[in-house]
Amino acid sequence: MTGVSRRALPGFGLGLGYTVFYLSAVVLIPLAACAWKAASLSPAEFVAAAWSDRARAAYTLSLWTAAAAAAINVALGLVVAWTLVRYEFPFRRLVDALVDVPLALPTAVAGLVYASLYAPNGWVGQYLEPLGIKVAYTEYGIVLVLVFTGFPFVVRTVQPVLADLDAEMEEAAAVLGADRWQAFRRVLLPTLIPPALTGFALAFARGLGEYGSVIFISSNMPYRTEIAAVLIVSRLEEYAYAEAAAIAVVLLAMSFALLAVINLLERWTQRHGG
Fold it and tell me: 133 and 218 in contact (C-beta within 8 Å)?
């Protein structure tokens, strides 16, 4: 025995080197290149490209559809995660595997499927059209596909927390006279808020940058159903690379700011959840 600890994983120096290399090559350098390209514009040109009426409409649509889809996913994800963890039923493993389908399925395929289903002559849309309900080629269609693409992030974030949560805590609350709502609000909710916020942030970030599924379900009309990612691609097709980079920089700034707020809320709930 030499007293030297041997580990299968590399030491701190090598691990830190790999980490810095990965962050630099995959994250920091591309983001810096985007910012550098946008910086080639003068301040007036940057504002004209990134803060035009069309760009602001695209930002607004991207933000509210991503936030709405993430909020819906939190509600649905909590129910699905609770069902998968707390109950035994036939084909539970199959249902659990199906949760990850949106992660494996190409988003363009999802957009095509939803557009076909909810088009005015689609399997579902033909019944909604007489009622005056339009989903495909509207803002609601964008929310629908964003719910599909972001759903696994909430379930997979909440599910491990529920699995580690002892069911006896709920039974103890019931013995002490708490009804189901009181047990949920005082025993479960403080524990579920941090992972739910994390799932919301992940689903929101995914929805904010989603492109493949949205272009098929929305009509991509400027000022109405054109999201920021589609506007960036439109600028690239026009060979206006600096203008596309300017829009991307604004979108990145919004993403970082909102994710920072959500992380602060998560830390606050972790401190005061007890």
Answer: no
Q: Is 137 left (phi over 0), alpha (psi -120 to 50) or beta?
A: left
Rounded to two decimals, the pTM is 0.85
**107 Cβ contact partners less than 8 Å away, ≥ 6 residues apart:** 145, 149, 210, 211, 212, 213
**Largest pairwise CA distance in the chain:** 80
Give residue limits of the domains in the chain: 9-39, 42-272
Residue 155 burial (CB count, 10 A): 21
Residue 274 has pLDDT above 60, yes or no: no
Q: Say how many CA atoms lie within 13 Å of 102 toward its Cβ.
A: 23
φ, ψ for residue 273, nearest 5 deg? -65, -35
Distances in Å between the alpha carbon of 82 and those of 70, 85, 160?
A: 18, 5, 10
Rounded Cα–Cα distance for residues 147 and 73 (Å): 6
CATH topology of domain 42-272: MetI-like fold (1.10.3720)
For residue 210, which of 237, 225, 229 has the smallest C-alpha distance? 229
The radius of gyration of the chain from alpha carbons, rounded to an integer in Å, stands at 23
The token pair that represents 15 in the structure block: 């691990």
CB 49 within 8 A of CB 242: yes
Closest residue by Cα to residue 102 from 91, 94, 111, 90: 111
Residue position matching structure tokens 């959840």: 273
Neighbours of 78 (CB within 10 A): 20
Helix (H), strand (E) at residue 182: helix 180-183
pLDDT, tens digit (0-9, with 9 covering 90-100), for 190-221? 778 888 888 898 899 889 889 988 999 988 89
